[in-house]
Specification:
Elements: E1 3-6, E2 17-20, E3 30-39, H1 42-49, E4 67-75, E5 87-91, E6 101-105, E7 109-111, H2 118-121, H3 124-137, E8 145-149, H4 156-165, E9 169-173, H5 179-184, E10 188-190, H6 196-204, E11 209-212, H7 218-225, E12 233-235, H8 242-245, H9 252-255, H10 258-269, E13 277-282, H11 286-295, E14 301-305
Helix pairs in contact: 3-4, 3-10
Length: 306
């Protein structure tokens, strides 16, 4: 039988298991995808721990994951354009992508370009759509200077590149171990921590926008220390501050579409966008994958190979 990640109650990493499940059967408008790779994300850990139960409650037993890439195994009634054998990138809203077979709405799939590796394709949706929406939210134009907090994480590493493509000067806040990667991608690296506002001003002077992928105190940094207008601050973490300060909180939900996936995948295939993959783990080692995520200081994405 096919296998899938499951958990029966909120808790730590130890509640995760991989078990045999029935092979899903596609319904109207659905595609059954044999998964090759599935990304993991901090939001999944928060859902599993119960930290977001009021916003996104779990139904047990719960599966896990949104990102996926794989091969079309079977299609349901009404599906055209994705014959069996096609290589696809997609996403599911049913927390089920960390599995050998996944049902995906046909509208949530895009063709996988041949030049995009499986581990990159499987990690693209959550981080890519979130970065896409965050960069769009701060309305960058050529000549702007934008700060990206968490610049080498899964979302930040894509956001800094999209911001550069928009013509902005990009300051990336990251640990020193990842500064060389930022520099190689045309980003000005700045270490986070005490005194960061002074280091940012020293690197670029006036700041026009800030994208917060890390949480913490970066919204206050933008508004009070750097003088950024609230309409040009976007956070994907501190949703609690959006209404209070009039900032934006546009992330994955605002960017989620097959069209966004196709656009990002095309950039990757043409060598115009990199999605760094820090580590891969087999599906059976899903606990180890999330432990690596918990360690922090990850450059890019961690991916399950199925």
């Amino acid at each position: 039988m096919p296998q899938a990640v499951r958990f029966d109650d909120y808790g730590g990493i130890d509640v995760l298991r991989v078990e045999d499940v029935p092979r899903p059967v596609p319904g109207e408008g659905q595609v059954l995808v044999q998964v090759k790779a599935a990304g993991i994300n901090p939001g999944e850990a928060k859902i599993r721990e119960g930290m977001l139960r009021e916003r996104w409650p779990a139904t047990f037993p719960s599966g896990q994951g949104s990102d996926l890439a794989g091969v079309v195994a079977e299609t349901g009634p009404g599906v055209t354009g994705f014959p069996a054998g096609d290589e696809v990138i997609g996403y599911t809203d049913n927390r089920s992508s960390q599995a050998e077979y996944v049902l995906v709405e046909a509208a949530n799939l895009a063709a996988k370009p041949a030049g995009v590796p499986w581990e990159v394709a499987g990690a693209l949706f959550v981080a890519g759509a979130t970065a896409y929406a965050a960069v769009r939210a701060v309305a960058l134009t050529p000549g702007d200077t934008v700060v990206v907090a968490g610049a080498t994480g899964g979302v930040g590493s894509i956001a800094v590149q999209l911001a550069r493509r928009a013509g902005a000067t990009v300051i990336g806040l990251a640990s020193e171990r990842h500064h060389a990667w930022l520099t190689a991608h045309g980003v000005i690296p700045v270490s986070y921590g005490e005194g960061v506002a002074g280091r940012i001003r020293g690197a670029a002077g006036t700041v026009d926008a800030l994208i917060d992928t890390a949480g913490g105190d970066y919204v206050r940094l933008a508004l009070e220390d750097l003088g950024v207008e609230p309409s040009r601050v976007d956070t994907i973490v501190r949703f609690d501050l959006a209404e209070k300060y009039g900032i934006k909180a546009e992330g994955n939900a605002a960017g989620a579409s097959a069209a966004t996936l196709a656009e990002l995948a095309g950039l990757i295939a043409r060598g115009e966008l990199e999605v760094p993959v820090a580590a891969t783990f087999p599906l059976a080692e899903v606990q180890d994958a999330y432990r690596r995520l918990d360690e922090g200081h990850v450059l890019g994405k961690i991916v399950l190979i199925v």
